[in-house]
Amino acid sequence: MTKIALITGSSRGLGKSMALHLADHGRDVIITYHSQKEQAQAVVKSIEEMGQKAVALQLDVRDASGFSAFANAVRDALKEKWGRDDFDYLINNAGSGIWAEYEKTSEEQFDNMMKEHVKAPFFLTQALLPMIKQGGRILNVSSGLTRMIMPGYAAYAVMKTAVEGLSLYMAKELGPRGIAVNTLAPGAIETDFGGGVVRDNADLNAEIASITSLGRVGLPEDIGGAVASILADEAGWINAQRIEVSGGQRL
To answer: Is 156 an annotated catalytic residue?
Structure first.
C-alpha cells in the first residue's frame, strides 16, 4: 500500500520541496496552503505527473478553532481519494518568521509566532492523531536558530525551542503506538521565508556561506531530500532526535 504524507504549508518553499521529493520516492501527499490555492494546485499537478496521488486542502495554522474541521476534511479526502481512513506521515512545517530585536518585539508578534509554531503542531497533531497509522511517523520542523544565535530572532527561536521539546514528549507518549517523532532543524535556506532575505541579500548570503562547512547556503532541495531520507522505510528506528540540516553552519 502506498504511504501517504500530510505536509502543512506545502504550496511553496521547503514544504513544496518536501512534497515533491516524497512523491519522487513513491509517496502520495496531502498538501496544505493558507491562501495560495493556485500554487497548491500546481504542486498537486506536479505530483500527479510523477505518477503519485495528491490533494490540496486549505489550512490556517494560526486558527486552532478550525483544526477539527480540517481533520474532517482530511478524513473525507482520505476516503474519496484513497479509500482509506488513515495516513502514514505528518510533517508540521507551516509557519512564518519575523525579525525583531528582543527589546522591540511586540506582544502581537510573539503571540502570532506562538500560534504558528507551538500551538499549531501541538493541537493540530492532536486533532489528526486518530488518523495517523500505527507505526507512522511525525516530523516537526524547527530551526538551526535554536543552536546558532542570531540577534533579531528571539521570538521565533523560542518557539522552535519549544517545538524540539514537544517532539521529545510526543516520541515518549506515542511510542506505544509505534509512532516515531523527530525534529528537523534546517539551517539558512534560499527561499522566500522572512521576505527572501537569505536568497536575495547577496552580502548576507555570502556571510552565511563563509561560516558553513560546505561553503554555500542551503537550497530547498537540500531539505526536501533530507526529509525523504528521514521518512524512508529503512530509517524507521530513528526516533526522538533533532536532525540539523545546515551543511555544517557555525561549527
So the answer is: yes
